[in-house]
Design brief:
CATH class of the largest domain: Alpha Beta
Number of helices: 6
Largest sheet: 7 strands, mixed
CATH superfamily of the largest domain: Ribonuclease Z/Hydroxyacylglutathione hydrolase-like
Number of domains: 2
Radius of gyration: 18 Å
Order of helices and strands: EEEEHEHEHHEEEEEEHEHEEE
Strand content: 25-35%
Length: about 270
């Protein structure tokens, strides 16, 4: 099996066994470098998000586990749902389902796969002009408070809005693991989008900060993986500073970035 330090699987995916029952699947040749997480129990497995949608993620996951796999969609952004078509059992928050039923056009994904967003070659057979994400109609619902029993491992679903309204994170309480999806990660936190809400994001960070004493590690969808749970406390305090009027450090990703060392917060530019 390939690893992050070895040859990329299919020329695209990095694979890292982080600990027993937890495998990270990354797409490091894209600027977003989204990470999906295969979490295994004794009876079944969950795949948290499915990345950009290029390459055969389904084949890779079948090589990694013989267990039945349920995809849990953390939210509806294109870099987290592209590989959904390779799986039969998909569950998503109610707020994500309209976007999943609509899909993403070839034109939208061609922009996402612009050569300026890539640091390598797309997988063989990928046509960036025809890489749209097809609509999905048969999607189950997952909601805050749900508990997913994998057999000897349970994942708890926690609402984490702010980046976008429907976002969820998953908690493996017994093993001290938070799968932070797009709520907390060691890079520039995206809070600059039309669907983002800084005050709601602060409330989410405040709630996640209460978990920190019981966490061992955080695995998230972007940036440096893993990171220490205490960084969530710094994110909470930093978001409060930004809301209070802290001057931004520079422009980035269509917004203004506030730098805080191991992470940043990107907010909208003021209306002119």
């Amino acid at each position: 099996m390939t690893t992050e330090s070895g040859t990329l699987w299919g020329g695209w995916f990095s694979v890292a066994r982080l600990e027993p029952g937890v495998t990270m699947i990354g797409e490091p040749l894209h600027s977003e470098d989204p990470k999906s997480f295969l979490v295994e129990g004794s009876d079944r497995a969950v795949l948290i998000d499915t990345g950009i949608g290029v390459g055969d993620l389904g084949h890779l996951v079948r090589e990694l586990t013989r267990l039945p796999v349920t995809v849990v969609v953390s939210h509806a952004h294109w870099d987290h749902v592209g590989g959904n078509r390779h799986f039969a059992d998909i569950r998503a928050p109610a707020g994500a389902q309209a976007a999943l039923r609509e899909g993403w056009s070839d034109e939208r994904m061609a922009r996402a796969l612009d050569p300026r967003e890539l640091s390598g070659t797309l997988p063989t057979g990928t046509d960036p002009d025809h890489a749209g994400i097809p609509p999905l109609s048969d999607v189950g619902t997952i909601a805050a408070g749900d508990r997913i029993d994998l057999g000897g491992r349970t994942l708890e679903v926690i609402a984490a809005p702010g980046h976008c309204p429907e976002l969820i994170v998953l908690l493996d309480r017994a093993n001290g693991i938070l799968f932070g999806t797009d709520a907390v990660y060691a890079a520039g936190l995206y809070a600059q989008m039309d669907v983002s809400d800084l005050d709601v994001y602060l409330a989410t960070l405040t709630a996640l900060a209460t978990l920190v004493p019981d966490l061992r590690i955080v695995y998230s969808s972007h940036g440096t993986v893993p990171f220490e749970p205490g960084l969530i406390l710094a994110m909470r305090d930093a978001m409060a500073e930004v809301i209070a009027g802290r001057p931004a450090d520079r422009e980035e990703a269509g917004g203004l970035r506030h730098d805080f060392g191991a992470f940043g917060i990107i907010v909208p530019k003021p209306a002119s």
